[in-house]
Amino acid sequence: MLRPKRPRDPNQLAKLIADIATGDAVDTPPTEKAEGQVKGGKIGGKVRADRLTPEERSAIASKAAKARWNP
């Protein structure tokens, strides 16, 4: 199970941090599964990039540039 997301509101986040510091709330470390997922994601992107041909990489980059610059 993954760690619960932290609040986006700065005031709520500040309260959570203060609660963790004073011991009123428990900060759980990431699980082994979550660490493995992060590692797998980093490996997967590299493997995918290695398997693409230069033409495929160019097509993906062109599509990304068009999506970025043409609203």
Written account of the structure:
It is built from three helices and no strands. It has 71 residues and is an all-alpha fold. It has one domain. The radius of gyration is 20 Å and the shape is elongated.
Question: Can you lay out the helices and strands and say which pair or pack?
Answer:
Blueprint: H1 10-22, H2 32-51, H3 54-69
Main features:
single chain; 71 residues; mainly alpha; 3 helices; 69% helix; elongated
Give a quick summary of the entry:
Helix content is 69%, strand content 0%. With 71 residues, it is mostly helical.
Give the C-alpha Rg.
Answer: 20 Å
Number of helices: 3
Tertiary shape: elongated
> How far apart are the first and last residues' alpha carbons, in Å?
38 Å
This entry's quaternary arrangement is: single chain
Summarize the amount of helix as a percent range: 55-70%
Percent in strands: under 5%
Average pLDDT:
85
The residue ranges in which pLDDT falls below 50 over 5 or more consecutive positions are none
Task: Find the structural class using helix and strand composition.
Answer: mainly alpha
Helices and strands, in order, run as: HHH
Total number of beta strands: 0
Largest sheet: none
